[in-house]
Design goal:
Order of helices and strands: HHHHHEHHHHHEHHHHH
Strand order of the largest sheet: 1-2
Mean pLDDT: 76
Radius of gyration: 26 Å
Distance between the termini: 18 Å
Strand content: under 5%
Number of helices: 15
Helix content: over 70%
Structural class: mainly alpha
């Protein structure tokens, strides 16, 4: 029995999928698949980690014979040791998260506000003074500038925090540092809850201008759209601002989306989102340019957001059923 066959045997004995084993070793599922098919072999560091995980010696994994018996089937795999996060690292991580919360909120607000000028110009006397072509050019130009500024802020924050993912993947908060993070999270709960409640309340209230204008003052419908957009902008900015720090606490503590199951869902969201959102942007721009109804096509975004969560749930359900297919 060679090393690839032993990895398969040990993994199945523990009831692990290739993806779960990959998460434990901080490698991709494709790497585990290649090990088990004999296309490649783990490096010495991963062999040591495999031996610790499955409770066998490195000799057992590397030798072609079966002199040493693997551990009993009812034994649970041991947890791999993770580097403890230093207090300074945790403090820097949370400081970056706090700054990112502001940047992400501003970037989100810029994207949501981007169509407002073109609506305002068409609503006022801009069309009469400048002509529809000029007002559309100005409005669309400002729209692209604001979207570009928002996307630029997101990219800047992502590049500035390139080490965060590495820290979260290869380290764990323990001992006094973990207690400090947990205490900080508990203290943050009231502020986080208040921001979420305020955001949800604003989302509900945002429909009032649309309802009032559509039922009583149809000639002011554009004003209703502007009010709606501004209220939604504040609500979403609150969600993003508060959620960024909450996300950071969970990341350091390995909770929620950073548990094993949470990481699996995040991978699904990343794959789906990488295809879905560029497609939505293309649809939004194409529809807006073809129809010229920039004050109406923004509705694509809330609809797309709802459909994204539906699509993610469906894909996760399908993959969940097929989870054991690689065993």
């Amino acid at each position: 029995m060679n090393i690839s066959e032993k990895i398969i045997r040990l993994r199945k004995t523990r009831g692990l999928s290739q993806e779960e084993l990959a998460d434990m070793l901080d490698v991709t599922r494709q790497s585990v698949s290649k090990w088990e098919s004999g296309q490649s072999i783990p490096d010495i560091q991963k062999i040591v980690q495999l031996s610790q995980l499955f409770g066998v010696t490195t000799d057992y994994l590397l030798r072609e014979d079966e002199d040493e018996q693997p551990p009993a089937e009812n034994e649970k795999p041991v947890a791999l040791k993770a580097r403890a996060i230093r207090r300074e690292e945790a403090q820097e991580f949370m400081a970056r998260a706090k700054a990112n919360g502001v940047r992400y909120a501003v970037a989100t607000a810029l994207c949501i506000m981007s169509p407002l000028l073109i609506i305002a110009l068409n609503l006022g006397k801009g069309v009469e003074k400048l002509g529809s072509a000029v007002t559309n050019i100005i409005g669309i130009s400002v729209l692209f500038v604001m979207v570009a500024a928002g996307v630029g802020l997101f990219i800047y924050s992502y590049l500035k925090n390139g080490t965060d993912k590495k820290i979260a993947a290869n380290a764990a908060a323990t001992g006094e540092v973990r207690e400090e993070i947990e205490n900080g999270r508990k203290q943050y709960v009231p502020l986080f809850a208040a921001a979420v409640i305020a955001g949800v309340t604003l989302c509900i209230l945002s429909t009032i201008p649309l309802i009032v204008c559509s039922t009583m003052f149809e000639e002011y419908m554009d004003i209703g759209f502007i009010a709606f957009d501004l209220v939604v902008m504040v609500a979403v900015a609150l969600f993003v601002w508060a959620g960024t720090r909450w996300y950071a606490f969970n990341r350091l503590l390995g909770l929620g989306e950073f548990s094993r199951e949470g990481r699996r869902r995040a991978k699904i969201a990343e794959i789906v989102g990488g295809i879905y959102w560029p497609l939505i942007v293309a649809i939004y721009l194409a529809t807006s340019f073809l129809t010229g109804e920039w004050d109406m096509t923004w509705i694509i975004w809330p609809v797309a957001g709802v459909l994204f969560f539906v699509a993610e749930a469906i894909i996760e359900a399908v993959l969940g059923k097929a989870k054991d297919g690689d065993e």
